[in-house]
Amino acid sequence: MMWIFYGIPLVHPHSILVVTINGVGLVLETFYLFIFVLYAPSAGRRKVFMILLAEVVFMVAVVIGVLAGEHTHERRSLIVGVMCVIFGTCMYASPLAAMRNVVRTKSVKYMPFWLSLASFLNGICWTLYALIEFDIFITIPNGLGALFGFAQLVLYAWFYRSTPKDEPKSELQLPTATVAPGNDGGISLSVR
């Protein structure tokens, strides 16, 4: 939500791509959360609602504070941009714990390849956009994100072969029943 606020014309003019792309992302995330809440146990629902409530209250406070307290695009862009840098960097740095775990266990079991690749490619795309637009607030977190994503991919390549493969699950054998005519004219049933 912070990137959407950053991209609106009242804060940072000429950032329509930032608003539209992050707006689509927000819609997809909302849909995902709706499905999660639909099937989650009540404790999970409560936790999600509390986090969403805190996020909405925080965003309302930021929007009111920035729009009422600052009256130039430069100041608004600076304040919201710094917050976006902080939150964006935290988002990209969140897999660092998984990377530490990979190095410690010499296994990539808990670091999904596709998530690492998506993080790297997302960081690259947004960094290229930011360099074209000369927007430092988009460049910093996404440049760091591209570096973190690249580091994850290097770790994945390095430790992939040393990751123990899960044993294939043994097939459950059902008993075989054979029905045959018996010697006495009846039916004979044998189970193996």
UniProtKB/TrEMBL annotation:
<feature type="transmembrane region" description="Helical">
    <location>
        <begin position="110"/>
        <end position="132"/>
    </location>
</feature>
<keyword id="KW-0762">Sugar transport</keyword>
<comment type="subunit">
    <text>Forms homooligomers and/or heterooligomers.</text>
</comment>
<keyword id="KW-0813">Transport</keyword>
<dbReference type="GO" id="GO:0005886">
    <property type="term" value="C:plasma membrane"/>
</dbReference>
<comment type="similarity">
    <text>Belongs to the SWEET sugar transporter family.</text>
</comment>
<keyword id="KW-0472">Membrane</keyword>
<comment type="function">
    <text>Mediates both low-affinity uptake and efflux of sugar across the plasma membrane.</text>
</comment>
<dbReference type="InterPro" id="IPR004316">
    <property type="entry name" value="SWEET_rpt"/>
</dbReference>
<feature type="transmembrane region" description="Helical">
    <location>
        <begin position="16"/>
        <end position="41"/>
    </location>
</feature>
<dbReference type="Pfam" id="PF03083">
    <property type="entry name" value="MtN3_slv"/>
</dbReference>
<dbReference type="GO" id="GO:0051119">
    <property type="term" value="F:sugar transmembrane transporter activity"/>
</dbReference>
<keyword id="KW-1133">Transmembrane helix</keyword>
<feature type="transmembrane region" description="Helical">
    <location>
        <begin position="138"/>
        <end position="159"/>
    </location>
</feature>
<keyword id="KW-0812">Transmembrane</keyword>
<feature type="transmembrane region" description="Helical">
    <location>
        <begin position="48"/>
        <end position="67"/>
    </location>
</feature>
<protein>
    <submittedName>
        <fullName>Bidirectional sugar transporter SWEET7b</fullName>
    </submittedName>
</protein>
<dbReference type="InterPro" id="IPR047664">
    <property type="entry name" value="SWEET"/>
</dbReference>
<feature type="transmembrane region" description="Helical">
    <location>
        <begin position="79"/>
        <end position="98"/>
    </location>
</feature>
<keyword id="KW-0677">Repeat</keyword>
<keyword id="KW-1003">Cell membrane</keyword>
